[in-house]
Amino acid sequence: KQEVTQIPAALSVPEGENLVLNCSFTDSAIYNLQWFRQDPGKGLTSLLLIQSSQREQTSGRLNASLDKSSGRSTLYIAASQPGDSATYLCAVKTGANNLFFGTGTRLTVIP
Amino acid sequence: SAVISQKPSRDICQRGTSLTIQCQVDSQVTMMFWYRQQPGQSLTLIATANQGSEATYESGFVIDKFPISRPNLTFSTLTVSNMSPEDSSIYLCSVHGKDSYNEQFFGPGTRLTVL
Fold first, then answer.
1. For the residues of B3-21, what is the DSSP string, one character each?
2. Residues with Cβ < 8 Å from B8, sequence gap 6 or more?
3. DSSP three-state, residue A110
4. In terms of CA atoms, which chain B residue is nearest residue A44?
5. Do A104 and B42 touch (CB under 8 A)?
6. Is B46 exposed, middle or buried (0-12, 13-18, 19+ CB in 10 A)?
7. Sheet strands (E) in A39-97
8. Which residues of A touch B33 (CB under 8 A)?
9. In chain B, which residues touch A (CB < 8 A)?
10. How many CB atoms lie within 10 A of CB A3?
């Protein structure tokens, strides 16, 4: 069974700093990997989707990379802002109905 | 992208009662998914709801506890039956993008507290 791990579980940085969130998965047979943002008590907002054939995707200050063979993805956030404070979840899709989530990284950006 | 709404957004319920959560999507979709997120945990898939057929439940979830309806291609309901405090969670509805292997979208969630 696919297992998804996110490190660190929590991260606190001063505003303006660049940061990297890590996601690893045990089975490289994936269709895609998706990064989400979740604010406390709320639903999930999709940030970036990387197909299995792609190496990276960018959206604004966010850049996600995928190394399928090693089972790793990173989410890079440039010039962090207090509004970036949230929990970030990665999820890998292994089939039409199979989306496996990591446990998340709780990010706090200090003004 | 798909726009998903859920009702209610939150509720506080008494032990032993039932709550029905509604999910509405702004476009027709084949599959709708219901997830649970227990406090401090990540998301777990409860079931997949297909229009015109019985829902498919994941291991550990049963129809008697979580009955699901899927009357059309834009709407689904999830009922949490005979609730206990352990059912306190966020319940989320989700759909695929244009096909099963593309982006997945989530509703805003229903935050349930059972006393």
1. -EEEE-SEEEE-TT--EEE
2. B21, B110
3. strand
4. B106
5. yes
6. buried
7. 44-51, 56-59, 62-67, 72-77, 86-95
8. 97, 99
9. 1, 6, 10, 31, 33, 41-43, 45, 48, 56, 90, 92, 96, 100-109, 111
10. 12
Q: Each residue of A16-75: pLDDT tens digit? A: 999 999 999 999 999 999 999 999 888 899 999 999 999 999 999 999 999 999 999 999
Q: Find the largest Cα–Cα distance for chain A.
A: 41
* Backbone phi and psi for residue A67, each to the nearest 5 degrees, phi listed first: -120, 95
CA distance A24 to chain B (A): 15
A101 touches chain B (CB under 8 A): yes
H or E stretch at B77: strand B75-80
Give pLDDT tens digits for B16-39. 999 999 999 999 998 899 999 999
Whole-angstrom distance, CA of residue A34 vs CA of residue A50:
6
**Are residues B107 and B95 in contact, defined by beta-carbon separation less than 8 angstroms?**
no
Please, which residues have CB within 8 angstroms of residue B40's CB and are 6 or more apart in sequence?
none
Band (pLDDT 50/70/90 cuts) for residue B98 is confident
